[in-house]
Design brief:
3 copies of one chain form a homotrimer. Chain A is mainly β. The first copy, chain A, has one domain: UDP N-Acetylglucosamine Acyltransferase, domain 1, CATH 2.160.10.10. In chain A, a hairpin with a 4-residue loop joins β21 and β22. Chains A and B meet through loops of A and loops of B.
């Protein structure tokens, strides 16, 4: 598919957008963000300053990745997912430095999940809808609940 | 009240909007969506392609119903509620078919709840704030927690 | 810093905005809202009719405070936080009166937390990411989980 940037989206000129990526209405891509090829950024999504997204990722409505977050390739981020980047937030924080959060290739983060600052989510891991993930999720594992427990990932017998 | 569509809202011409329905700022109504009479769609809400809403429903700020979702009449959907429609999401899914999710007449879905793909919520049921609903909620029952447990619905003695 | 209101923000003329406050893209400030000095309202935030925010508060992306909510000074509200103001919501509610919800000075409400209608959060209290707070949080305490339990607040030994 050809690259598409909706007229209502706001993409900073210093950001990189790969070929074939589609950016829908009211999405916001901040300075120095880097987005791979064939990604899909749905309505009302955002990518923070310097955040990185690999190839073939999907960011569903209302989700965003903040500064400090790196997504691998083919990562799915469902609607209304929140990434945190401050391990000790407060109203006045002059020493703020964003935590590094990374998500491995092929991981799936379901709707409305919350990923705490500094967490690493391994390749092919899955995060359940509404899970609140406060510690690392090893590759291929499944995080569910609040706070999220780590379980083996059950594949559906389609 | 007369029908109202805010100038900043985006309503596809193929969508149906019933008499007396009000659509507020930056709301988005996708193609072939069907919205009944006397509904209220608050700011930043969205109704997906072909989604159906009965009469007298309220969708609060930041909520949306996706393709595959049907709301009955007089359904309340609080702010930032998320409906899922893919039982097995992933970044690349060429066989995607939306699950069918339905909400019965008079049901109340409180703020920031998450409704998993394919769930049926019965008439007059209630979903607590922040509940993550992964299975059906029978008519008149109350879903609370993550994952949501099903309890009898306690009415307030006003 | 000088006061700043983004051209895409919508601020009702009857609202009060203190000196040095910055209001970013697509934020919405409703009639009679009162916002103190040196606050920061990030993108897609909203402040409801008559809601009150003290000095030096931060409201991160996608969060909002509704009618009936009062924030003290130096309150941090993370991204996608939801405040409720109706203890008994339903689609048709002709007797609606917003509950009074207050947050004390220096409190920290982390990402995607849900604050139920009528809750009081004390000075310096903290709410964990994704917590669903259904009862009061005393000053200096920590609320975590769904429904949130109240624990002593652990300070990080930086």
């Amino acid at each position: 598919m050809p690259t598409y940037i909706d007229p209502t989206a706001e993409v900073d000129p210093s950001a990189t957008i790969g070929e074939g990526t589609r950016v829908w209405g009211h999405a916001y891509v901040a300075p120095n963000a880097s987005i791979g090829r064939n990604c899909m950024l749905a309505r009302n999504t955002h990518v923070g300053k310097g955040a990185v997204m690999g190839d073939g990722c999907k960011l569903q409505d209302g989700s965003g990745i903040t500064t400090g977050v790196t997504l691998g390739n083919y990562v799915f981020v469902g609607p209304n997912v929140t990434f945190c980047n401050d391990p000790d937030p407060r109203a006045s924080n002059t020493n703020f430095a964003p935590a590094i959060t990374s998500v491995g290739d092929g991981a799936v983060i379901c709707a409305a999940a919350v990923i705490d600052a500094g967490v690493t989510i391994g390749e092919g891991a899955k995060v359940a809808p509404g899970a609140v993930v406060c510690r690392n999720v090893p590759a291929g594992m499944f995080a569910v609940g609040n706070p999220a427990r780590i379980l083996p990932r059950m594949e559906r017998a389609s």
